Amino acid sequence: MSSQSEQTITRDNLLQTPEQELGSSKPKQFSPANVRKLGLTRKTRDRRDDHNPEERARKHKELELKPLYKELLYTITHRMGKPSSAEVFTESQLHQYIQEAFTMTEAEHRSLMERVHGTEPPVYCLMATVKEAKEILGKDISGFSDPYCLLTIMEDEEESRTRRSKAKPSKSIVKDVVSNDKIYESEIKKQTLNPIWNQTFILDKDEELSLTQKLEDIKTNFSSLKRMIKDAKKEKGQDDFLGKVVLKLQDLHCTEDNWYNLEPRTETYPNRGKCHLNLKFIHKARDGTLSAGRSAYINYCGILQQFVEAYISKQKSSAPWKGALCGEAQTLLEFYASQNDLSPFLQDLAKWVAYSKLYQSLEVDSSVLFQQLTSVEYHWRQQELPHQQKQELGDSLHGFLQYGLCLVAKYRDIFPPTPSATPKLHTLLRILVQICKTQAFQKLNPAQFELHDEVSDAIQTGTQEWFTLKKGLHQPMTKDLAEIVNALSRLIGEVQEDIKHNKDVWNRVFLSAVQVDVFTVVYKRFDSLIAKEVRKTLSLLQGQMEQALANTLFPVYLSLQAIHKDKAFLKTRGSLELTNFQEDFRDALPYWLNQAFSRTQERVERAVQVDQLQPLQSGAVPIKHSTSAVDLVACIQPICHLWEQLSWPDPEEAFMLMVKLTEDVCKIVVNYCHTLKERVRVLSENSDPGSAINMLCVVVNDLEHLRSVLNRLPTQLNWAGLRDRTQNVIGESQFHNTLPSQLQQAQSVLGREIRSALDTLGKKLNTDIETQVRNMSTRKRLPSKSTEDAAAPLMRYLEQELQYMNENLVQENFNSLLTPLWNNSVKILYQVATQHPQQGGLMVFCQRLLYTLQCLEQCFLAEGNGLPEKTLHSDEYMALKAHLTHNSLSSCQLIEKFLERKIQEQNVNTSEKYGAVTLLASYSRSDQRLRVEVLNAVNLLPMDSNGLSDPFVQLCLEPNHVFQEVETRCTRTKSRDLNPLFEEAFEFLVSLDQCRAPGACLVLTVLDHDTLMTDDFEGEAFLALKGLPGVARDMKGDELSLQPEVTPAQIRLPLIHPKHNDDSILALLESRRGEQEAQAYVKKRRQREKQSQEGIQP
């Protein structure tokens, strides 16, 4: 709380009389310089009183406080009636309260009490207002009455009965006991049961003896106010009694306003209606020397303000005052208003004047002002104010409006954008609206007053003053251009923040309270002010642009850009001076781009220099690239952000700007690749090969991460949005041939670097794989280990390396590494397999290689997580697999493969240029017999000189290792016949398993019999046994016994001739010199090839 001297000075200002305030020819204007900020407790003191505050306080007490103090002492001494509050205070309690409230010493209190006791006592009266009655009895034939009222002050009932016993009772009871000059009579209301009088009477018991003195003399009896309602006199007869109201004076409050039941004289007609009375104890004559002739209204205002200040000064909290007063203060105010006959209208007017003044210096809750405004408006509609009070009310309302507008002009400082301050602004605006809506204001201020326009003007004026103040605060200290630009930047920064607060906070308050779009008003005002300052500053920079100066301009541009974007929230657009502000910064744009590029490049180089090329994070969610890759993305991001910050409006210039930004990003990426390679070289010089491989893996991951960043660049820079903006000025081909081509070039560089690194990794792995494979091929190792043991070292190495690569390479690069590694592995296996095709133990070696190839395939397939089968099964792989498969087979298996190939050749051959042979064939499972009946041969080649042949058919079951015990059979020779008819049957005792063995077939060879020379070869045919009747379908034992004899199948087989040296299997068999069975079979087939006519030109 403030000191006592401050309180005294404030009270002196607040307690000016209306006459003093109205001494000026115009209403008091509240200068913005003297406007208080909500939360402060006092106004700024007058500088003229600062030199002697004690003297001023003494004068204030003598001239203002002591007269009011005497008035209160007089009121307490001569009080009458009860207060309306339930709590009753003694005279000493009231004295103690006012002594504290007025800060009077005990000596001052005693001195003033003596003065009051020496004054003339007042004349006490009871002011009774008869307002109306309702539901009274109807005494006339019409059912109505002509009621009037008689009022007087009477003695108590005991004295009244004594006096009435002396005379005959009469209906005019009042006239019988009181003289006519002490009876007050109201008007007569004709023919009504609900009369309305609204008449006021001043009642006094005795003019020579006051009412109070009379009551003091009566010790055991009580005086009363007795009122009767009587029917008006008729021409004949006496007035009719309608009812009475008897009130004891000692039970009355100082002010009463109630409905009272009309009582009967007897029990007849007990319900006689009600009467509305207003009663007040007043001083008919009061000593005028107490307050130097001031009116009671002025004293009431001063007392009220003093009580409020005293109450607030005792409060410990800083919460606003909500209109509460202590019981003593309320009691004294009620007594003083009643004794001086102050109407409720004057009391509410005094409260409004006092509270509205207190609002300007203390924290007063707005609900107090709302309540008083409502009361004043209510009374204004009900009764008329004296001229002087009318003028005071008008001046008070107008003055508060002016004060409120001053606060509105300073709303930025007084009501900051905080949750606690903005509701106060909203309340102030509502009060201003409420004042303008009152009839009192509209009547007392006839001049046109539009609050909406006044608030808008106050906002514009306050905005101009605020801007001027901020401009002065940010004035450059020197004439240096950079300092001038920095000062402008700080000023615009404050404007930007203020616009944000107006948009987000204050605009809601002004719109809801007074329908003023403060954001639009402020924005348009700032638009003009800022545009002027920006053009003025930029005009100083013409021809002097450099990098440092351009850097200081960039914050200015960003602030203007943010302010310019806020125009989207304007309710009414119109023309704005900052619409094309970007054009003023065109000279600085190249410097901004250069600054962004050079700064990013430096950051990237520093990031690579400190990068140890280790994975950033391992564990369940590994991050396989290094710190420099992350830093690079963070470094590139500001360039992308620069595009958003610039938001260049011109489409064509925006396209060129995008080209430049994309080019810079691509340059940074390419430079990063070169810098990273150099970093790898430096770190690899003194490291082991394993560490070098590790770093190489990290580099590959870094480059792959960077490639993914480049792929997102069109989205980050919003190429699609730029394309929409430039479609009318930039052709489709020009757009796509510029931006995407830049990106593709950078991506191609990244791709080459990634492939180069992967090739380096692949070469290392390929060398080790080749070493492992060649170790398997040494002759010394062939008999010493099994196939699995021989391939185990290679598989362990591959599993270890591939697992490491999978853990340390991102999936894309790992897959890229697998493909060349697989192809090279296949190539190495093929080279080793074909290097010494004639060496001994080739079959075992090829078996190992085939097993190794199968293991490699499973390793690279990785259960569907590695390379796809289409990639694995390349042409080289298929050729190697076929080669190893053949070389891994035994001679018997090779012969089986050969026969299967011949059977396939037989099945697809339809030409009978060498003739054909027809036969019947079947197999009987019951006795395990193969039955073949050679029917005939047709269109055989003439082998003899006579143009004929002597054919016979040789039947042989092959392969020989399956049918070792089965002899070769022959038909009879048919002389000189090219279409012989044999019709000979043969049976072979063979098992079903033999018939189903791989390559099992019946070889039919047609020969021309020569007596002296070797039989000539006519042709051969191969019949697969597994397809014959009786062999093809499986049967159980019971079915086999019940199965009838199998029907033989008639088969026509074209004869074929083998090609010369055309079979790789025979060549492989021929290479196995140490196997007699293989050599015998090859010899037999080579003999057939010599006899063959296939490929011989006729």
Strand content: 5-15%
| Biggest β-sheet: strands ordered side by side in the sheet | 4-1-8-7
pLDDT < 50 stretches: 1-49, 163-175, 206-224
The tally of beta strands, per DSSP, is 16
Radius of gyration, in angstroms, nearest whole number: 62 Å
Gross morphology is elongated
The secondary-structure class comes to alpha+beta
Number of helices: 36
Q: Tell me the distance between the termini.
A: 135 Å
Main β-sheet description? 4 strands, antiparallel
Helix content: 40-55%
Compute the average pLDDT: 81
Biased composition (Polar residues): 1-32
GO cellular component, one term: late endosome
Subcellular location: Cytoplasm; Late endosome; Recycling endosome
Domain MHD2: 788-898
Overall description:
This is Unc-13 homolog D. Pfam families: C2, MUN. Residues 788-898 form the MHD2 domain. Belongs to the unc-13 family. With 1098 residues, this protein is of the alpha+beta class. The protein has 36 helices and 16 strands. Strands 4-1-8-7 form a 4-stranded antiparallel sheet. Strands 3-2-5-6 form a 4-stranded antiparallel sheet, with no helix packed on it. Strands 13-10-9-16 form a 4-stranded antiparallel sheet, with no helix packed on it. Strand 9 and strand 10 form a beta hairpin. Helix 13 (387-409) crosses helix 17 and helix 22 (627-646) packs antiparallel against helix 23 (651-684). It is elongated.
